[in-house]
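Appendix B, Record 12. Input sequence as logged:
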Amino acid sequence: MRHTDEEIERAAARFEQLAEELDPASAQVVTTDDLRDVAEAAKAVRDDEAKLREAVELARAHGRSWNHIAVALGVSRQAARQRFADKVGT
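Logged structural output:
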């Protein structure tokens, strides 16, 4: 959407007015620590998933059966195979 010069000038004037009225002493700052925690946890999960996939791939390369891998994961053989077979090149 393109804006006219008049719209841009009005927005700039409004911004200047708001900036002049801003009192840093009374401004409320919203922290984003909780969102940073979510992002860090999500990254850790992705990293751990990659490590797990690599470990399963290595176990398969060493001749481990899906049954053995399933026991190590604490899931059924079928669940282990469904989750990893297409990712590790059975």
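The first helix runs from residue 5 to 21.
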